[in-house]
Description:
Layout: H1 3-11, E1 17-20, H2 38-48, E2 56-60, H3 62-65, H4 68-81, E3 87-94, H5 98-111, E4 116-119, H6 125-132, E5 138-144, H7 164-175, E6 181-185, H8 190-196, E7 204-207, H9 217-226, E8 232-236, H10 238-241, H11 249-265
Parallel strand pairs: 1-2, 1-8, 2-3, 3-4, 4-5, 5-6, 6-7, 7-8
Helix pairs in contact: 2-4, 5-6
Amino acid sequence: MTAIEKLYQKLKKNFHICVGLDTDINKIPDYLKKEKNPVLEFNKIVIENTYNHAAAYKINFAFYEKDGIKGIENLLSTIELIPEDILIIGDAKRGDIGNTSKMYAESIFNTFGCDAVTLHPYMGYDSIEPFLLFKDKLNFILALTSNNGANDFEKLRLKNDKFLFQTIIEKVKEWNFNKNCGIVFGATNVEELKENADIFGDLIILLPGVGAQGGDLNEVVKIFDEKKNNNYLINVSRSLIYCDDSKDFPYSVEREIRNLNRIVQS
Length: 266
């Protein structure tokens, strides 16, 4: 299955929750820290109790790369735990000059076997092109992010009176000739989401920021429902995977993703 096929089969079922595996050993339940490999055991429990309810998984590479070889092994083992029919997003935020991007693309898609990647566009088309050539993969390009620093550059108003992030969205639509592009648009930017939802076209929208960062799930879903746009993923990380630090954690994480789906599907 291609990345878009994996995603659409979930979206058709009205599954929109993307589980963020930003696993921090300091935040996992204490009883799991006694395991031989606490991070992998934690991820295994999260995956086993969410895969029937998740639209995708987003794995933040930084949380694994920091541990060197052991972290990379955990990253690869985590990817192997995810069922083959569910989209895996490598949240690596790549984007460099041509030859370097080509190597990054081969790493994310061939070595790690991810279905999708996050990219930053600030070095222009040639930094994105090597990823776009993988026609069966998806590329989520940063437009308006959920952090406070989005004000520094992304919300700058250009000479044409558009914001920089709006120009990025228009560029990504031009680059979407293989229908394998999406954008990252922070769920914390509710007003901007309302004002710009009409320009998304057929791009897939990845929305981080719900939960611990303060994004309102109900508001986000309402906006997309009003626009009759079903092409979106809502990433939930900390508020989901750290919802319980007791031995009831496996049951709690399943209950939490079910509750999230109820909100989305109501």
